[in-house]
Write a structure and sequence with these properties.
Layout: H1 17-40, H2 48-64, E1 88-90, E2 99-101, H3 104-118, E3 125-131, E4 134-141, E5 144-150, E6 156-158, H4 161-164, E7 185-193, H5 196-208, H6 217-225, H7 230-234, E8 239-248, H8 256-265, E9 276-278, H9 281-294, E10 302-309, H10 312-318, E11 328-332, E12 337-349, E13 355-366, E14 369-375, H11 379-384, E15 388-389, E16 392-396, E17 404-408, E18 418-419, E19 433-435, E20 442-444, H12 450-461, H13 473-481, H14 496-500, H15 507-519, H16 525-531, H17 539-549, H18 552-557, H19 560-564, H20 571-582, H21 584-596, E21 618-622, H22 630-639, E22 643-645, E23 654-657, H23 663-671, E24 674-677, H24 678-685
Parallel strand pairs: 2-11, 21-22, 21-23, 23-24
Antiparallel strand pairs: 1-6, 3-9, 3-10, 4-5, 4-7, 7-8, 10-11, 12-13, 12-16, 13-14, 15-18, 16-17, 19-20
Helix pairs in contact: 1-2, 12-13, 16-17
The structure holds 2-(butylsulfanyl)adenosine (IVH).
Length: 686
């Protein structure tokens, strides 16, 4: 059976148990599918609001037709089955979810049932921000972090211990401030998240490298934490807030407020500052409004507030339902969404020739921000959503994340809407475009496409590239439009006379630009590699490639296999590099750049490295050095004419092993490479 991702179910029109059974089956399938996309793939295809709508409809139907309730329904479970590859961790106590409510009346109902069941007239609550990240559990034995896991299906989660250890805010050893000694065994829970700033920086870098971007900070956090290689997690700025204790041997807490204070005193990050004790439910509602206002100012995403009974004995008295406790609710904020008209779908051409559809909208205010454009991600998205030009659409904005077009409102169609078709040709240069079979990537096949050239040239001359001052986007456009530049390499053929004939170029500025361009020829080889804009090769990878291969000639000839021998280069990057160099236009550009006299090897342009006592010697540093940072040690070697490599092979002359050196040291021993301690190295450089 085919699963409908968006089943059309109207609970009001369902009268019989038979009808309900069909609708319930559809909803369960859809919800299971979306759980899988959200929790396992970190790549949801619907928004939280849409998901919640399906979930609430299913709950409503199961309540109306209790005979159809089953224990395997998604309403009875949390999350999704964990991913096996990471290793599994069984939670000592199940990790449950929270009941979600969307309006004040449901909060009052919650309060009433708390008061009724406890037999008291007023309940003290504690209200906290609802962080939009992913739930994790940390286990500390004798104060030392031993296991960390994701929530998974609530019973069993994924083992992310190594990854969690890379988060700076997570203490590896608990502390004791103000005499708060940490318990022998402590099981704490909280939320790992990514700030808007880190999320935007990450997406920017990914876009620059031709990688796919994350839809929102939550997906970025989940995708970063659920990595098989903790080095990847370490490179992403993740943060954490802890908010509950599941177990603490020999330590009794009276209130949730006390829990939060103790966590802080043990060195665990909490958000007490934004937490509020509410003497009755009305104060919790005021808090909800305050936080809703704050939402746009906070550096991270919150999607509501969590209202909990503060007294833990009262929490235990109320107990649990199957998937959530009776003593807490998540009161979500209204989504920042709006309805507007989809005026047009335009196509942008990126530096790597990638085509991206963008929605042009009737400007509309979404949560205080005027939105006239929204990303459509890729062609497959536009087709899947069946977006038509002229449609009335719902758009949504999460934090300061780029607005997205969620869905068209089909009932508002009048027949004049125009179905979207993937263009056959590039909108800029009219060359044919190539579309992948899943329709997720489309690229212009013309490497000299002006749109690509504009972007690749501005990348080439950028500060971290060839660093050519005075060649901003406007001037680049001017040069391309005047026909003076038709490839990256042609900037090196420009003359001051040619520039002098252009508008806004005086003699002085023409000459100084030519000088800047000429100066850039001396930039080191790794900068040139980065500046070329090889998809997925950022400045760090460019440095590694330069030091591993030493010259353009060798790198161009490198096979997939050779590239993958380098630690940080996986199959995808390796393929991207070989494809880049296989292209005839790329090869032409490189020949022209060589002729222009650019540094095509690590030796050229770095006079200090061509002599010195380490000339011809290659070093690998591994483990932790105490006297220098790794980069400093590498510079010392390079200044003496040596080379630094990141992987061990029989070609290496010295492996310098610091504390806790691991697999590289083993490999060096096996290959019989000379091993130096940090002290040996110090002696050597004296
Ligand atoms: S308490 C038994 N407090 O929201 C209740 N959860 O939708 C345990 N969340 O699974 C959760 N902020 O991942 C709690 N201040 C907070 C929270 C919070 C975010 C998440 C958590 C939970 C989910 C439920």
């Amino acid at each position: 059976m085919r699963i409908e991702a968006r089943p059309k179910v109207n609970p009001k029109s369902i009268k019989t148990s038979n009808e309900a059974s069909v609708a319930i089956a559809k909803l369960r399938d859809a919800i299971r599918y979306h759980n899988y996309r959200y929790y396992i793939l970190d790549s949801p295809v619907i928004t939280d609001i849409e998901y919640d709508r399906f979930f609430l409809t299913l709950l409503e139907l199961e309540e109306k037709f209790p005979e159809l309730k089953t224990s395997d329904s998604p309403t009875q479970k949390v999350g999704a089955e964990p991913r096996q590859e990471l290793g599994l961790v069984r939670h000592p106590i199940p990790m449950v979810s929270l009941k979600t409510v969307y309006d004040e009346s449901a909060v009052y109902t919650f309060d009433e049932s708390c008061r009724r069941e406890l037999g008291i007239s007023k309940v003290e609550y504690i209200a906290e921000p609802k962080f939009d990240g992913l739930a994790v559990e940390l286990i500390y034995e004798k104060g030392i972090l031993t296991v960390a896991s994701t929530r998974g299906d609530g019973e069993t989660g994924e083992d992310v211990t190594a990854n969690i250890r890379t988060i700076r805010e997570v203490p590896l050893v608990l502390l004791s401030y103000e005499g708060e000694k940490s318990p022998n065994s402590l099981v704490v829970r909280g939320e790992v998240y990514m700030s808007f700033a880190s999320f935007n920086a990450l997406n920017k870098a990914r876009e620059k490298n031709g990688e796919s971007t994350f839809a929102n900070p939550r997906n970025a956090a989940a995708g970063s934490l659920r990595q098989l290689d903790p080095k990847i997690t370490a490179g992403r700025s993740l943060q954490i807030f802890l908010y509950s204790v599941a177990e603490a041997t020999g330590r009794e807490f009276k209130t949730q407020a006390e829990v939060l204070h103790s966590l802080s005193k043990w060195g665990l990050k909490t958000n007490i500052a934004r937490t509020k004790i509410c003497h009755d439910i009305k104060e919790a509602l005021v808090y909800h409004n305050e936080m809703d206002e704050l939402r746009d100012i906070l550096p991270y995403e919150i999607d509501g507030v969590v209202i909990k009974i503060n007294n833990l004995a009262d929490q235990s008295r109320l107990g649990m339902r199957t998937r959530d406790p009776k003593w807490a609710v998540a009161y979500k904020f209204k989504p920042r969404s709006a309805t507007t008209k989809l005026r047009d779908i335009i196509i942008q051409v990126g530096r790597t020739g990638r085509l991206t559809p963008v929605a042009e909208l009737d400007p509309v205010n979404v949560g205080g921000v005027e939105v006239a454009r929204a990303t459509l991600h890729n062609f497959s998205e536009v087709l899947r959503k069946d977006l038509r030009i002229g449609d009335t659409v719902i758009i949504e904005r999460a934090g300061d994340v780029i607005p997205q077009v969620v869905i068209p409102i089909e009932s508002k169609r009048d027949g004049t809407e125009i179905k979207f078709q993937i263009p056959k040709d590039c909108p800029i240069c009219e060359y044919p475009i190539s579309v992948s079979s899943d329709k997720k990537t489309a690229t212009c096949t013309n490497i000299r496409c002006p749109a690509q050239l504009r972007r690749s040239l501005s990348h080439f001359v950028s500060r971290s590239g060839m660093d050519i001052e005075g060649l901003g986007q406007k001037r680049i456009d001017q040069l391309i439009d005047a026909g003076l530049v038709n490839s990256i390499s042609s900037i090196y053929l420009l003359t001051a006379e040619q520039l002098g004939e252009l508008e806004r170029f005086g003699d002085r500025s023409s000459e100084s630009l030519i000088e800047e361009i000429s100066k850039s020829k001396k930039q080191p080889f790794h900068r040139l590699l980065f500046a070329l804009g090889i998809p997925q090769v950022g400045s760090q990878t460019a440095k590694i490639l330069a030091s591993e291969f030493g010259s353009m000639e060798r790198l161009q000839k490198a096979s997939l296999f050779e590239l993958q021998q380098i630690d940080s280069i996986g199959p995808e990057i390796a393929r991207s590099i070989t494809e880049f160099f296989a292209d005839a236009d790329t090869r032409d550009t490189i020949s022209e750049l060589t002729r222009a006299g650019l540094s095509m090897s690590t030796m050229k342009g770095r006079s200090s490295t061509s002599s010195g006592k380490f000339k011809g010697l290659t070093f690998v540093f591994t483990g932790t050095l105490t006297r220098w940072r790794r980069e400093e040690a590498a510079t010392i070697v390079e200044l003496q004419g040596g080379t630094v490599s990141s992987s061990v092979s029989s070609k290496i002359d010295y492996v310098v092993a610091g504390a806790e050196a691991g697999s590289k040291l083993q490999k060096a021993k096996k290959l019989g490479v000379k091993i130096l301690s940090e002290a040996d190295f110090a002696k050597l450089i004296e």
